[in-house]
Amino acid sequence: MEVKSLVSEHDKIIEVFITRHSQKIYNFIFSKVLDKDITEDIFQDTFIKVVKTLKKGHYSEEGKFLSWVMRIAHNLVIDHFRQNQKKRIFRYFEDFNLISGIEDASLDAEKYLIKQQTETRVKKLIKELPPDQQDVIIMRIYRDMTFKEISEEMGVNINTSLGRMRYALTNLRKIAKRNNISI
């Protein structure tokens, strides 16, 4: 009887947590994968993993539960991209949140506008690069891929990937300077 009440109490805590933080976790995952179906799959896998780990008694980070769950979601996103890196190169990113790593729940109107303007400027700058340089920037910085992974996905050697990144950064600086944008 005591075990049953403990499990049901445990389930209630998980339910409260999911209700309280599900939107934040879902938005985090979506900002990385930009696909509703994939987001829902990873979101579900995240909570399955959380529940299994808790039921096995393997959770040990006291007081940092949300951070722990976000780390699980982050790792599952990385796993997704690793599994699918051969399937696509990310060229089109109209809805891609380039500054998704910046999370400040207390953004006031001014900070929000500045963030939006920065995102727009960065997107505009990247769009002016040649497609191969756009791909390298997106894969390295926004998909967090290694140069080895990039070279494999693009079908070039690693030095070519490194060179494209160097040219992309150099060209971004030139484009920004030409448009009077400081980066």
TrEMBL record:
Residues 18-86 form the RNA polymerase sigma-70 region domain. It holds the Pfam family Sigma70_r2. Coiled coil: none annotated. Keywords: DNA-binding, Sigma factor, Transcription, Transcription regulation. It comes from the Bacteria. One of its GO terms (biological process) is DNA-templated transcription initiation. GO terms for molecular function: DNA binding; sigma factor activity. Residues 122-160 form the RNA polymerase sigma factor 70 region 4 type domain. InterPro entries: RNA_pol_sigma-70-like (IPR039425), RNA_pol_sigma-70_dom (IPR014284), RNA_pol_sigma70_r2 (IPR007627), RNA_pol_sigma70_r4_t2 (IPR013249), RNA_pol_sigma_r2 (IPR013325), RNA_pol_sigma_r3/r4-like (IPR013324), WH-like_DNA-bd_sf (IPR036388). Belongs to the sigma-70 factor family. ECF subfamily. This is Sigma-70 family RNA polymerase sigma factor. It comes from Sinomicrobium weinanense.
